[in-house]
Amino acid sequence: MYSVIATDLDGTLLNSDHQLDPFTAHTLRTLASRGVPIIIATGRHYRDVAGIRDLLGVDAYLITSNGARVHAPGDEHIYSRDLAPAFVRRLVQPDVVGEHGRVIVNLFADDAWLIDRHAPELLVFHQDSGFKYEVMDLCEHDGENIAKVLYIGEPADLAYTAENLKREFGDSLYVTYSLPDCLEVMTSDVSKGRALRYVLERLDIDPAHCVAFGDNMNDIDLLETAGHPFMMNNANPDLITRLPNVPRIGNNFEAGVAHQLRKLFDIRDEIASPR
């Protein structure tokens, strides 16, 4: 009935410190040792997620940049969707982002996280992987090979940016929130759910047998694709409203995913949990 697991990271698999706890890591390793495929589906950069996967100690498919990149176990790059370079060059301009300059702009290239200013407070999200940004004048970037544009700022400022995106680009972009202060932009044919379907076809597994976990608006398509979706108790209220029939489980800071997986897959070994 349950043949594969797909899970988001922040707010879902990771704890409140954006790290893996030992109980969760042990649970996933147990399932991987039984031959259950693991798929990590996140808005994070591939290099960042590869570091988390290595710490986790399992072979996993990595869906990153909200579905713009997919890597197979062994780091084979198997799927890619880039923003049009001309779009990227516009997306970093102040009249699109906001002339006030309060919004931090990031570009996710294949092997780099590019940012328009120093923001050391963001590095707390990447403690497990050690992934770091490179500061540059993004208006000088040619726009080539960019999977995602990420805006970080206050919700009111991001709402203004989102309105600019809608007015200028319409349906040519996929725009979503991963957190209230994180607005993410990919090309229109990108989503976690589409990338999940690609991986499931490669594995020859019916989506009806997929267990999936998420907590925010960029997880909508992921949860709608999987036959057995679960939403975190700490999920974004807008996600709860959007998907009212998806069952809610424990919180990310109480290893809710691990506890649910132990029930579904009947894992009975003794290990201390965060509760």
Classified by CATH, the class of the largest domain is Alpha Beta
Structural class: alpha/beta
CATH architecture of the largest domain: 3-Layer(aba) Sandwich
Count of separate DSSP helical elements: 10
Using only C-alpha atoms, the radius of gyration works out to 18 Å
Portion of residues in beta strands equals 15-25%
Main pleated sheet: 7 strands, mixed
Instruction: Tell me the CATH superfamily of the largest domain.
Output: HAD superfamily/HAD-like
N- to C-terminal distance: 28 Å
The CATH topology of the largest domain? Rossmann fold
Report the uncertain regions.
Answer: none
| DSSP strand tally | 13
Question: Kindly state the mean pLDDT as a whole number?
Answer: 95
**SSE sequence, one letter per element:** EHHEHEEEHHEEEEHEEHEHEHH
Family: Belongs to the HAD-like hydrolase superfamily. Cof family.
Organism: Caballeronia grimmiae
GO molecular function: metal ion binding; phosphatase activity
Protein name: Hydrolase
Task: Provide structural commentary.
The chain is an alpha/beta fold and 275 residues long. The chain folds into two domains: 4-80 and 190-264, Rossmann fold; 85-187, Hypothetical Protein, Haloacid Dehalogenase-like Hydrolase, Chain: A, domain 2 (2-Layer Sandwich). Helix content is 32%, strand content 23%. The protein has helices spanning 9-13, 22-33, 46-56, 85-91, 94-97, 155-169, 192-203, 220-225, 237-242, 256-264; strands at 4-7, 38-41, 60-64, 69-72, 76-80, 104-109, 113-115, 134-135, 146-152, 173-179, 182-187, 210-214, 228-231. The strands form two sheets. A seven-stranded mixed sheet has the order 5-4-3-2-1-12-13, with helices on both faces. Strands 8-7-6-9-11-10 form a six-stranded mixed sheet, with helices on one face. The chain is globular and about 55 Å long. The protein starts with a strand and ends in an 11-residue tail after the last helix. The model has no long low-confidence stretch (mean pLDDT 95). This is Hydrolase.
